[in-house]
Amino acid sequence: MDFLQQLGPVALGSRLRRLSEHLTGEAAGIYADYGLSFQPRWYPVFYLVAQQPGITSQEIVEQIGHTHASVSQIVKELVRQGLLVMAVDAQDQRRRRLQLTPAGHEVLPSLRVQTEDVGRVMQVLVSEGSPGLWQALTALEEQLRRQPLRARVAVTRAAREGAPVVVRDFRAGDQPAFRALNVDWIERHFALEPADLKALDQPEHYILTPGGCILLAEMGGQVVGACALLKQDEHSYELAKMAVSPAVQGRRIGQRLGEAAVQRARALGARRVYLESNTKLTAALGLYHKLGFQHLPQAIPSPYARANVQMELVLH
Question: Disulfide check for 97: which of 54, 102, 148, 187 has CB 3.0–4.6 Å away?
């Protein structure tokens, strides 16, 4: 039996590397079949420059997702091969814009024909063998963008080793984690809205500066949960942006955060804590009831399309 297959998902990186090596080896032979003296690793950079003349190396990094070091190395190789040329940006002397050389333009027609042929074959290969493969890879990349694999493993390890959960205040450098946790649950159930982006992209400006606070749950050095109190008026706060990493759900972290938020609201002199939710979020609604929140008898206007539940906790 194939050992990597026997190992299962833990060997995903090795499986993908093996597949990549196979395809790269085949690609080298295919280029030769079309009379092209071309390296497979050059393809995305070269073809992107062909499609977007004047593009910079940094813009290539952003569009193909490779590291800056990798793109820079490929650009240098293509320049040495006489296929690309770098020109100084007329408006910014520090920037170099990339263009195909005459030799690069000579290669391009054959490369386009080869690309079309390979594209047809790969379309059939993917659709017949694994119809959902491309979508699955896209979903996997998106999940890892939201929370890198290293962070996920660290959370799982901390949970296994019984690391304590610490609830602390937001501090400089926490915005990416605060944003990622909330984007993850919102996009799993709903869609991001403008009001979300304001608070998640600039929490200091929209939450902290007006007098609110953000509480974070940390485990093993990783932020695994978050919630915020948004100041509404002198005696009212809104409980919002509560999120817990799926990797640690079931450890009562949401309850810890909720209790800490209510306690903080009391310390801030609040007489009322308000929140908005949705009937789909049954676990969250159960937590809010446990904390003492009650449904409002009459709905009030909300900036969120998904808000169909409104609750309040009256503090004495």
Answer: 54
- pLDDT at residue 122 in the model: 83
What global pTM score does this model have? 0.60
As a whole number of angstroms, the distance between CA 19 and CA 80 comes to 29
| Contact between 177 and 213 (Cβ < 8 Å) | no
Tokens of 228: 């915020």
pLDDT tens digits, 125-149: 778 777 777 788 888 888 888 878 7
Compute φ and ψ for 169, nearest 5 degrees.
Answer: -80, 155
Extract the runs of DSSP E, i.e. beta strands, from the chain.
84-88, 96-100, 165-169, 213-219, 222-233, 236-244, 272-277, 294-295, 309-314
Question: Could you tell me the residue ranges of all domains in the chain?
Answer: 34-130, 145-314
Dig out the tokens for 102 from the structure: 């005459």
Count of Cβ atoms closer than 10 Å to residue 268 Cβ: 15
How many Cβ atoms are within 10 Å of 160's Cβ, its own excluded? 9
Bridge partner list, 215: 169, 227
Superfamily of segment(s) 145-314:
Gcn5-related N-acetyltransferase (GNAT) (3.40.630.30)
What tokens were used for 247? 């990797």
Element (H, E) at 171: none
